């Protein structure tokens, strides 16, 4: 049957492509021994932009204040909140002299644009080295600032960190969210280690004020509501100015979404933002996803018809074995090992989910960060 013959060769090609992708792009990060640079005491400004985050600030800001680092300020940006976020910030500022508050009012030209609020916060920071996190994020240790800042150097002005999500027992949604976060981290951290940085996540990201203003801030993509982290890094990151920090003391943790609806809204925004990456980055990332989709679809169809099923099973086993080995090593680095037993099932669901989101985004696109 001609259709199955074609599908069979497509399957062989994409299975081989997937194995090569894992070996070439991901294995260097998986098997590379982590170097720990010496701790530096450079002045750091921690930037936290909050919109209606009063309760999260009460819960998580103390973990930033308690950092074991002698030379840092905390810049709290109240982005036109309508709850008591500002009052909570002021209460903390009264007790801690290293807290600075930037109260942002909605501007008609930049209505509900997080990038506008962040720009004002960055301008007010007194230090050149900036460390970003979100109001709902908690550093996993008191050495978060020291671990992330240690990767700054004369050459390295960008530091990419890992921001994970808390585990919720017996929650399929939680596993999907954490697996998607793990896969995204594997991609952007592996690419950065290879000298091809293309994004970072605002939950745990550092760069210099000098770089920010040299690039004219967010002006090139200010019209895009999201992307204050990944689009900016996509614009300014190079092989020489970017470092990766995956010390387990450098991680941040956040509360994940608890409903599919809220997570879908978040993912729609993220996928829309990715469409504005550099063409070369989009091509590499799209090729990985397309090969994933074709691998699953062609493999399932071929096995359903028992078409050369022995060979198909061999290539499925080869692909999954290479994936399992490499992803297991990286998941250990990022403390996500509990996801490994569910790897094939989570991947299949995520591939279908991402296709659904992509199609949905062709119809409607989210516009606000909150």
From TrEMBL:
Q: Does the keyword Transmembrane apply?
A: yes
Recorded hits in SUPFAM superfamilies, A to Z, give: Nucleotide-diphospho-sugar transferases
Gene Ontology molecular function, alphabetical: glycosyltransferase activity
**UniProt xrefs under Pfam families:** Glycos_transf_2 (PF00535)
Question: Can you give the residue ranges of the Glycosyltransferase 2-like domain?
Answer: 45-182
> Which of UniProt's keywords are assigned here?
Glycosyltransferase, Membrane, Transferase, Transmembrane, Transmembrane helix
**Membrane-crossing residue ranges in chain numbering:** 6-31, 283-305, 311-330, 342-363
Could you tell me the EC number(s) of this protein?
A: 2.4.-.-
Q: What is this protein called?
A: Glycosyltransferase
